[in-house]
Give the backbone structure.
Amino acid sequence: MISDLNQSLQTFLDELASAEPAPGGGSVAALSGALGASLVAMVCRLTIGKKGYEAVGAEMRAILPRAEALRRELADLMQADTDAYTRVMNAYKLPKSTSDEQTARTRAIQAALQHASDVPLRVAEACGQILELARVVAIGGNKNAASDGGVGALMAEAGLRGAAFNVTINLSSIKDEAFVADRHARVAKLVADADRAKCEILSIVEKGSV
Amino acid sequence: MISDLNQSLQTFLDELASAEPAPGGGSVAALSGALGASLVAMVCRLTIGKKGYEAVGAEMRAILPRAEALRRELADLMQADTDAYTRVMNAYKLPKSTSDEQTARTRAIQAALQHASDVPLRVAEACGQILELARVVAIGGNKNAASDGGVGALMAEAGLRGAAFNVTINLSSIKDEAFVADRHARVAKLVADADRAKCEILSIVEKGSV
């Protein structure tokens, strides 16, 4: 049930593959974004101060701390996603013998589900922001690291799409129609923008690398 | 320069984001595949022996060891990708004062580049195999874990596409035209098949989850 960053890659993969439902796709989506942010940061570092890239130095220096901040946030969201899942499970276990208990339980479940859809929504937003940085890096970054930036974009887009799944699934059990409509619209826009950004970035990287 | 599985997630992300070129996109592509394989294995485990899924039990039991084998192979390929990069770098550092040295160096570089393109090619093939398993899991697996299978498919496809970048980049410096043509054709087929498989799987998952 843990997905903290101090565990080894092996342990994380083992826990993921286990019959425990968490960590699951939600944590992997956040990790995918963190991997994308790390690759964007790497390309920035391989560009800053390098001969032939003086003109983009300031731009890369501005992007680097943004990529690092998104990496940290997504690492935190890996754990937050697992915690949100636990909160939903715990809410379903609340007593429901009396009418008061039923009301309290329903309220707790609905609040937990809203939280469990807002965590992956934030993952998706952060992945969208990484794609914006990946685009700048693909255009101006060190050409020797172009494929690393491309893989970064792939990871950010996969993370965004995976997070979108997790938003949608939780929305299917949420009763607040205005909340559901708002989140559906936000996710649809994020997915469409990300798909477009990914295609543009891959096209830039492929042109540069062949 | 290490990408072994005993290091923590935090250390891996830190090394990835550092100015060292390895680990980079190649290792992340293999990790992405391993994450996909883990999620496929998880959905198998959440389906086997579960009420209502008796009819697919045998199928899921057959898929599980294949997903686990691909996960182990991709974990090994993370390290192999970093090693292959180091081998190329070392070949470029060979002496080139005499004609004999130049010939030996060129031969070493070409052999290292072929190896460095065959490692990500195998990553791409393994990711393609995970997508085949993810499709079976999306169709017959536990519906409560449908999004986990969907994220698994996303990770496998992103890993395949990322590995394809790394094949292509190495091919651009390889002189053996037959080798280059063969690998370009293989990669193009893998990318096209994966894109189709991913779209089909996401469509199945989205229909089931909304």
